[in-house]
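Step 1: inspect the first sequence and its tokens.
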Amino acid sequence: REQGWHLRGSPLSWQVLAYNRHTYATVSQRLVITVIPAPGGDPPYQGEFLVGNRNVEELLPAAVREMFLQASAGVWEQDDLQVINVTSALDRGGRVPLPIEGRKEGVYVKVGSHSPFSPCLVSATSPQSRFRCSLGQQPLASCYDTFAPHFSIRWCNLTLLQVWPSPTTPGPVWGPGVLEEDGSFQPPTEVPPQDLLPGFLVTLLVPLAVAVLLCLLLGHLMCCRREGV
């Protein structure tokens, strides 16, 4: 990322650098992305699936993501799903797969909906299912796995989240120091002149008088208090 702005609706300028894993050839491209809020707001119900038989670049095409949403709708029992985020398992601490045919790095795909989770998803994340996962067994699921055979879901890594919108921050309040629309600025009246001489004399003479007294006292102690004087 080269530069960007945090305001929604403002453009984000990204510079993407990619390399070939076999030849190590590199290529760069600059992308300008405009971020706008979702029409219906962020979906409050979000589920994150770990796809074990895919790499992150294989989930980026729109056709593949649409196929994943159709498979997700089968277990979610809703059709208003949308892909929120796609993250490589390597960015979550996963290991680089061995250079063996068919081994993939894994992808975390977060899907959101405005409808509650289905009983199938809830049962897959229940304490009983987590206990079965700790024993190396498959979690409980009361529905047919519609992801197979295209997507191999690791159900023990399923995460369900409920994200509620945070309260909006109130906007600025017009105060007395802010001009109204089409208002004219009225400068403050001229301050009457003040006599600063007394303050100047006090500031200067008081420390000077204290210094003179200290000098006289020190001279008396050093010159007039000697033995024989």
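Step 2: inspect the second sequence and its tokens, then contrast the two.
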Amino acid sequence: PWEARLKSAHDQGRFLLLQNLDPEYTSEEVQDIIGSAFKESCTAKMVRHTAISSPHSGQAFVIFKTREAVDKVLNKLDDECLMLPNQRPLVVSIGVLPKPSEKQTGFVGHLSIDRARRPMQREMKEAVSTPHYSQNNTIEYEMAMDWCLLQSKSDKWWAKLYEQQGKELKRLKAGFKSK
């Protein structure tokens, strides 16, 4: 699996993160760029966008066959700048994998309680099931509604920011072509 290869490459120092790519690039196109610019073979995978990542700039994880290939790419980019076909400079950094926490929960903010550590009480054995959604007369419902409102506002802010960045990028690209 990709995750296992990525971890192995990270541990061996054969892993780079490419940034400032055209978000429309495929993994194969990234591999072709590395192959033609640096004469090195690699395996690449485009990183999917998140809610807070810019839709105008893509990223890719790249795994090289040797540590020497990574050093060659980094040294060459220290001396020179690689301009991609769409007038973007390639930004390269040594890849860093996020460290997984000891126990991850399914949802952000949700905590799980390990049943093995907690003795089952008699009241819990005889408890009656309640609905799994918040009722409109509870604090949870009010908090959920507030959260939905804030999330909606946040989504609109990000959309407006990305729209403004898109306009600025188009204006800059037009300036490059006219010269």
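Step 3: confirm your contrast with the notes below.
The mean pLDDT is 81. The helical segments are 2-12, 27-38, 67-79, 122-125, 139-178.
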